[in-house]
Design brief:
The chain is mainly α. The chain has helices at residues 2-12, 38-51, 60-75, 80-91.
């Protein structure tokens, strides 16, 4: 964790770089059928990861779909500015909508 933080700080040229890992020790594994599509598998993996995080678990369905949408936007070749704006709107607290 410390090595990753140092690498990210060095790459971003940030004076201070705080990397938090806020995951509960609970592991989630959603059962998937053999016929599950790639999108369904991604959705379940994102849901499991988000549900394990104290900060994001209440919004995990919305955020999981947002991650899939973000992937699609990136594959469409959207600019970094558009991608960052999308992520910013996705992470905006509910009361700010």
């Amino acid at each position: 964790m410390r090595k990753l933080q140092q690498q990210l700080q060095r790459l971003s040229n940030a004076i201070i770089f705080l990397l938090k890992y806020e995951v509960e020790a609970v592991a989630y594994v959603s059962p998937l059928s053999e016929e599950a599509s790639r999108t369904q598998i991604e959705q379940e993996v994102f849901m499991d990861l988000l549900t394990a995080n104290n900060v994001y678990k209440k919004r995990s369905p919305e955020l999981a779909q947002g991650l899939i949408n973000l992937k699609e936007l990136q594959l469409e070749g959207r600019s970094e500015v558009e991608l960052y704006e999308f992520v910013q709107s996705l992470l905006m607290p509910e009361e700010e909508y």
